[in-house]
Amino acid sequence: LIADKLNRNGTPAENGTLWTRGKIHTILTNEKYIGNNVYNRTSSKLKTKTVKNPKEEWIRCNKAYKKVVSIKKFLKAQEIIQARSKNMTNEDLLEYLRLKLKEKGKLSGVIIDEDDFGPSSSIYKSRFGGLIRAYELIEYKPEHDYTYLEINNQLRFFYSMLIETFKN
């Protein structure tokens, strides 16, 4: 595992902490680590669910940052991550969450991504719209209240509408 190798080499993660599979997963699934800044992946209108925008509507700034991971390795990682859950049905994914909850007593993206042989937390976003929705389907209530995320999305949208109104 990448995290194990980095830890054995004494390479610290952010804030001097140890590397975990979850931290590696974040690097290998976020385009900012290959230098890109991508906006408008999702959108929402007031009092509506956030929706994924088609890739052609994404606003992309390539080479916005210094890349940490090569594009070739990043794309290979995407293939591997998708392959890990490709043959799993939605019910298989939900059953995996139930078993992981029973094992750990709680769920999070990090807990899911720490399992070397389980699906990636990112598959729950593409299949169910996010982990929170998958949690709802298995009737799991996280320790933290994440309703603020939807409220934040609505406020951002409302704010941008106000700005546009005053510009005109």
UniProtKB/TrEMBL annotation:
| Coiled-coil intervals, chain numbering | none
The GO molecular function terms of this record are:
DNA binding; DNA strand exchange activity
Give all residue intervals belonging to the Recombinase domain: 2-83
- List the InterPro entries hit by this protein, alphabetically: DNA_bind_recomb_sf (IPR038109), DNA_bind_recombinase_dom (IPR011109), SSR_resolvase (IPR050639)
Pfam families in the cross-refs: Recombinase (PF07508)
Q: What is the official name of this protein in its record?
A: Recombinase
